[in-house]
Amino acid sequence: MSPEGVAGALALIGAMLAAPLGYLGARAGGKATLAAAQEQSRATLKAAEEQTRATLAATREVNRGLSSQAATDARRAVYADFARVGRGLVDALHRYVMQPGPDVDADTAVYLAALDAARWEYDVVSIEGPPRVRDAAKAFIDQVLVCRAHGSGYASLVMAFGKLDELRLTDDGHHFEQVLEMEREMAAIRRAARNVPAGEWRHHAHIWASEPGVNVREQWREERDRNPEGAPAYEEVSALVDVLRDDDPHSAMEAAVQAGQLDRRDVSRIVSHVVKFPDHDPLGMVRATLIPASEGLEAFVKEAGRVLHPEEHIGDS
Is there a single domain that holds both residue 113 and residue 259? Predict the structure, then answer.
């Protein structure tokens, strides 16, 4: 074969060998491109999943915030309603005890209506919670019931002293003078009562004064022998009995009874109070029995504030 033929044959053989190698190289390049594309796809999918999770988490957080705010708003409305009717109940209690009218049933109906309203709102507070606010609401209502029980026992006393106030506040100068004279009579009783130990000895003196013909010295001696510790002198007990026995028909209290301004039960209640508590303002003393009800409502409001605004009560006991 000529040299030209040999060269041609070698060229043909080289071409034939290069063809499959080029195919193999192209195939290898295609696989690399596919692998890169798959990797890119996986990265894109992972990023999308992460974004989706982040979006869901943010949505849940927003929903929790909205739900928490809705719960707070609901509790605020419930607490406000209870506080409002609670204030009405305190006012009704005060009127029931301190301003009794002639119609006891009507006074009682007003008080019971306010109590029923508070009990209804308490049921709603119990549903909303939390326990410490529910307990504060219940403690308030329980305290109102206790105050009413204590205070209602003074209703007749309040009415008796209330009649004196009515006479004092009239424009009639004669009535005003009557009250001044009655106050002088009460002042005499107070002075004598202060010299006799509180409790049983004052009670005995009051009883002996109401019993005509009783021998005070003999009664005093018997009581002293039974209870010698702290026994007052006979003269001190006798002085109280004497001032309580003052049956002067021209006395200011007797004149008020005759004029229909007081009745004898009013006089008895006024005198009994002055003997037992010579240094206490009767109406002030009765008002003091109602203070725990107001304090109970204030305690509820404070607990409600702690729940609604916990950030303002950090460190509170």
Answer: no
Q: How would you class 159 by CB atoms within 10 Å of its CB: exposed for 0-12, middle for 13-18, buried for 19 or more? A: middle
What is the band of 281 on the pLDDT scale with cuts at 50, 70, 90? confident
Residues 234 and 295 grouped into a single domain: no
Task: Please tell me the distance from the alpha carbon of residue 104 to that of residue 95, in angstroms, as a whole number.
Answer: 12
Q: Cα–Cα distance between 301 and 136 in angstroms, integer?
A: 9
Residues 171 and 140 both lie in one domain:
no
| pLDDT digit string, tens, across residues 102-121 | 787 888 899 999 999 999 99
Confirm if 291 and 124 have CB atoms less than 8 A apart: no
Domain range for 234 is 155-286
**Average of pLDDT values for 161-181?**
80
What element of type H or E holds 239? helix 234-244
Question: Containing H/E element for 197?
Answer: none
If asked whether residues 280 and 160 sit together in one domain, one would say: yes
Rounded CA separation 239/193 (Å)? 9
Q: What is the pLDDT of residue 77?
A: 93
